[in-house]
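Deliverable D2.4 — example input (structure tokens):
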């Protein structure tokens, strides 16, 4: 029986490439780089917040890094790197390393005595010896609860924007102070919309530009890593498995607070004195009215409330990993998965409490640390999971 990989983003494609190199039978499902392609297709100047060298898909053979793709094409090889270029890089990687991706969905996975029964959208069913969930972020987009009762067409997550130019002339409330909210506000303004940023805190944190050529002292004091700069980033990238050994209460708090909301340096001039910002403000309720929304805003410092009428809301409110949102997993299977909060609790092989069921990518961050919320965590993840599946494959063939 093959291994089933659900998801054809950076983690899923990387794992498939490594399994193929080890001659481990597998099938991988999904549209390659779907999340990143959709983000890029929305238009505008959209960039990765990570460095080029920290956004590599993992290949068992050299020559397939993001820089290997970008340099001969005259593209940026440090920062800021275009999301469109990254999506194209992922497609190039897939075409050269994983051309067997099946561009269909796995709509149901059930547990069997010796593995899993997978049902595809076209009706095919097959048994898998092991299952790896590599669905990325798309199914975990979080919209604030104040919008739970309004039409999804009126209040969406930043990752769900189809085309920014379609908002031309509309009044848009953009919620958040992180990269996705700030970028959405800038792109809306540049597309002819009227965005207004609603920020819960009293200020926006902006990252400073990091120069490649720095003094030796500066390099030692604040090394550049695939997760950013500084000693914490260096430790997390240098010892990627270490956080798994940290007691869960401390680790989960660290994951929740490390790398808090901030904007990249190249966004600052596109936001400050360009987009109206209301600080210390929370949306406490929303109702539909006249093809738009009336938002009830609360100012945390003054304690006052007021109404704001907008045509649409776009929430840059991040992502919340929740196993229950993985609808393709049978309810009985989901119920058998032990949790850390709402995420799966994983052992040091990225395996859940259900034998043979693995999670990689952002879904593994609560067990392994913030490194795995980003593409930079793919290298360690897929090597560990490949080694584990190779071991199990040999045991099956030895029986």
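Example output (designed residues):
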């Amino acid at each position: 029986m093959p291994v089933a990989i659900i998801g054809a983003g950076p983690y899923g494609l990387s794992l498939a490439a490594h399994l193929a190199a080890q001659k481990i039978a597998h099938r991988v499902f999904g549209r390659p780089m779907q999340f990143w392609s959709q983000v890029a297709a929305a238009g505008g100047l959209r960039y990765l917040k990570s460095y080029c060298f920290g956004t590599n898909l993992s290949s068992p053979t050299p020559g397939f890094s993001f820089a290997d793709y970008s340099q001969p094409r005259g593209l940026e090889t440090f920062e800021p790197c275009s999301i469109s270029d990254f999506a194209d890089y992922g497609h190039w990687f897939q075409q050269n390393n994983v051309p067997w991706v099946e561009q269909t969905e796995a709509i149901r996975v059930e547990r069997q005595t010796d593995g899993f029964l997978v049902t595809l959208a076209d009706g095919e069913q097959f048994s898998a010896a092991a299952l790896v969930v590599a669905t990325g972020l798309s199914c975990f987009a979080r919209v604030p609860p104040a919008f739970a009762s309004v039409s999804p067409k009126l209040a969406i997550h930043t990752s769900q924007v189809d085309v920014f130019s379609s908002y031309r002339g509309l009044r848009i409330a953009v919620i958040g102070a992180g990269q996705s909210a700030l970028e959405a506000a800038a792109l809306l303004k540049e597309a002819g919309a009227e965005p207004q940023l609603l920020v819960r805190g009293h200020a926006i944190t902006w990252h400073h530009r990091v120069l490649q050529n720095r003094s030796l002292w500066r390099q030692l004091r604040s090394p550049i890593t695939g997760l950013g700069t500084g000693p914490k980033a260096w430790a997390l990238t240098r010892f990627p498995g270490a956080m798994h050994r940290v007691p869960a209460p401390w680790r989960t708090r660290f994951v929740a607070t490390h790398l808090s909301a901030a904007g990249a340096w190249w966004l600052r001039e596109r936001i400050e004195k360009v987009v109206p910002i209301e600080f210390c403000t929370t949306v406490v309720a929303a109702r539909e009215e006249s093809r738009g929304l009336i938002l009830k805003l609360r100012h945390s410092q003054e304690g006052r409330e007021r109404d704001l009428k907008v045509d649409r809301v776009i929430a840059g409110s991040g992502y919340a990993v929740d196993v229950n949102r993985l609808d393709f997993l049978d309810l009985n299977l989901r119920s058998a998965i032990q949790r850390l909060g709402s995420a799966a609790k994983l052992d040091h092989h990225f395996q859940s409490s259900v034998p043979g069921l693995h999670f990689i990518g952002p879904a593994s961050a609560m067990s392994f640390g913030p490194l795995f919320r980003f593409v930079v965590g793919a290298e360690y993840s897929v090597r560990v999971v490949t080694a584990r599946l190779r071991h199990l494959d040999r045991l099956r063939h030895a029986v």
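The chain has a mean pLDDT of 93.
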